[in-house]
Structure formats: C-alpha cells, structure tokens
Amino acid sequence: MIIYPMLLVSVVCGIVYAADVCNVPPIFRQECGWGGISPEKCESRGCCFDSSIKGRTWCFEKSNSRCWVLPNVRLECGWAGISRKTCEARGCCFNSNTPGTKWCFKKK
Length: 108
Known about the structure:
Elements: H1 5-19, H2 39-44, E1 48-49, E2 59-60, H3 84-89, E3 93-94, E4 104-105
Antiparallel strand pairs: 1-2, 3-4
C-alpha cells in the first residue's frame, strides 16, 4: 500500500480543523449571548466562549467558515436594513460587526 504523506496530512488536518467549531477569528464572531454571560450559560446555549481577547465578543456562535468573508470583498445578498433572519433565510451570511460594510452577503 502506498501512503501519500501530503494527502494524509491534509485529511488529518481537515478533520481536526472541522472538529474545532469554536476556532473563530474575532472579526467573524457573531454574538450569542450578552455582556457578563458566564461560560457555563454561554455553552449551555450551544455557543462558544473565549474571553482571551479583551474588547471582542466572548460568547459567540460556532463556526461557519463559508461566511468568513472579509468586509472589503463581500458581495451583496440583500439590502440596507435587512434582518439577520431574512438574510439567512435567503441562504446568505450575516455579519454586522463592521459598520459601513455589507452585512448580508454571499457565502464563499
């Protein structure tokens, strides 16, 4: 049997990465709680908790890497004032963390 090292590394890394749904860059974190929420309460809501970065969202939704699109390259998928619910119902991503950018946008 021939084992291709790079393929094996890719598969292993892909599995590890996919399993880590709380490894979300701070710019892409979507609020899932409120200020002062405890780690236990946050996680009981099915969310991730990481208080290591001051001034950023600590209780946030699990990753959806298809929505990790930098604000300057987002393609519009809604209209100004669209709600998260309506945007996501259209199959789009919603991120209102950066004022002055598209909040409802197409997935990668």
